[in-house]
Amino acid sequence: MLGYNSNWVVITANDFTSNTTAVGKVYVFNRASVYGGSAGTIKTFTDNNAFTLAPAQTIDNTQTTEYMVQDWNGNSSGSGYVQICTLTGTAASPVYTAGAQLGINQPWSENTVGAKQSGSTKTLDNGDTRIGNAVYINGSLWFCNTAFLPASSPTYSAVQWWQINPATPSVQQFGRVVDGTGSIFYFYPSIAVNSNGDALLGYCQSSST
Each residue of 153-166: pLDDT tens digit? Predict the structure, then answer.
């Protein structure tokens, strides 16, 4: 995935070291070098506890911290958690930090359930709970992911979105697009936000009808 701020252009990836083991990679490009037409010196960080880190598209020319977020644990003692990671330091010498976890008392399951579709008993691949993209604007980090519900024994999927203050960190807003009957499956979300704080959420949906 691609993110950026006033110092860097950031690419994140999953590096599979085996069929079942992956580590998170963060590739950091000096923004001035990239804008000048050169990759420059690429700084690489490896996080053995990261999977699908979503770097923020930072809509703030003065923001020097690059925030990244990942799904952490959907159901721990009745709460669901994400992790906020950061890049700090100078443009030439970035520093990666795996930060604290932030929870909400609305858990979800990490176990996937295929989405029902019309005309077939076969299900659609509706992905997993990884965070698809993130936006930093006006001091807030916005992001979204698929959640499988109920958390204890999932039978359907919903889309959930977050607005957090990553500096605290604290949850400012949290919501879900969900069919409480479990008939409609929502999945593969993405989010965009403008300077007025208007958020646009995109997603797929499917059902047996």
Answer: 999 999 999 999 99
